[in-house]
Design goal:
Layout: H1 8-35, H2 44-71, E1 72-75, E2 78-81, H3 89-110, H4 114-140, H5 144-174, H6 178-208, H7 215-251
Helix pairs in contact: 1-2, 1-7, 2-3, 2-7, 3-4, 4-5, 5-6, 6-7
The protein binds retinal (RET).
Length: 265
């Protein structure tokens, strides 16, 4: 896929968004890792998965950032392609690792009955892999028709994921009452809201039409995915942490390694 020449502003917008994403992932990694000691044992796996997700994403953002820097050089006031490819593969490898973790994290926090947990996780993970492989084929093709077709194919497993989350997890939520039920429904909404951002971003170049391979399309996609990743990884992890704390308070639990109060000497 040929890179277009960018204005100073366009290049810097992507550069700064990628840099912001690195900062968000690194800070979230520190937070989730430390916050693990603030939750009881049953929520620890979810916090560990949050740390892994932002750790993996932070590394990949660093690589994307480097790749972006090498792909362009400043010449006579504009950013022109150097001929070094901009590697979008990092993004998709990242999603291939982090999306199944996010799915497993949700299932862990929902604390579904053991009998359904394994099968729901497996079906969701298979669907995410199919969705991402199809998406990648469309993403790297330099042709609007191909991008459209693979985008539609990728949306089939995506629709299935939404179906499982909406219908089956809602069913699970209905077995609960009060605060727990409310939080389960909020988590689903957050997940669907942030994940919905990805296909919309993917579609931006198609909707821009003529500028499909142009500067606007590339800048919009990079900025859109960066915002979506910050929301779906950092924001989502914070939400999971807050749910864990609320559930602990409701059930009168303390963090597993909270020391007993020591008498003053
Ligand atoms: C941390 C990364 C996350 C949560 C990534 C999620 C990605 C998606 C939900 C991507 C979906 C896509 C479609 C439904 C169609 C077009 C191609 C994709 C891969 C962008």
């Amino acid at each position: 896929m040929e890179l277009p020449t960018l204005t100073l502003g366009q290049y810097s917008l992507v550069y700064n968004m990628l840099s912001l994403a690195i900062a968000a992932m690194v800070a979230s990694f520190a937070f989730f890792t430390m916050a693990r000691s603030q939750v009881s044992a049953r929520f620890r796996p979810a916090l560990v998965m949050s740390s892994l997700v932002v750790g993996i994403a932070g590394y990949h953002y660093f690589r994307i950032f480097e790749s972006w820097g090498h792909a362009y050089a400043l010449q006579n006031g504009a950013y022109v392609p150097t001929g070094m490819p901009f590697n979008d593969g990092y993004r998709y490898v990242d999603w291939l690792l982090t999306v199944p973790l996010l799915v497993a994290e949700l299932v862990a926090v929902l604390q579904l009955p053991k009998a359904v947990r394994g099968s729901i996780t497996a079906r969701l993970i298979i669907a995410t892999v199919l969705m991402l492989v199809a998406g990648y084929v469309g993403e790297v093709s330099g042709d609007m028709g191909t991008r459209n077709i693979w985008g539609i194919i990728s949306s089939v497993p995506f629709a299935y994921i939404l179906y499982v989350l909406f219908v089956e997890l809602k069913r699970a939520a209905e077995r609960e009452t009060g605060d727990v039920k409310y939080k389960l429904l909020m988590t689903q909404l957050l997940l669907i809201g942030t994940w919905g951002f990805y296909p919309i971003t993917y579609g931006i170049p198609v909707w821009f039409g003529a500028d499909f391979l142009g500067a606007t399309g590339i800048v919009a996609v990079q900025v859109g995915y960066s915002i979506a990743d910050i929301a779906a990884k950092c924001g989502y992890g914070l939400m999971i942490y807050s749910i864990a704390r609320t559930k602990m308070e409701a059930d009168g639990e303390v963090a597993a390694n909270t020391a007993a109060p020591v008498a003053a000497e």
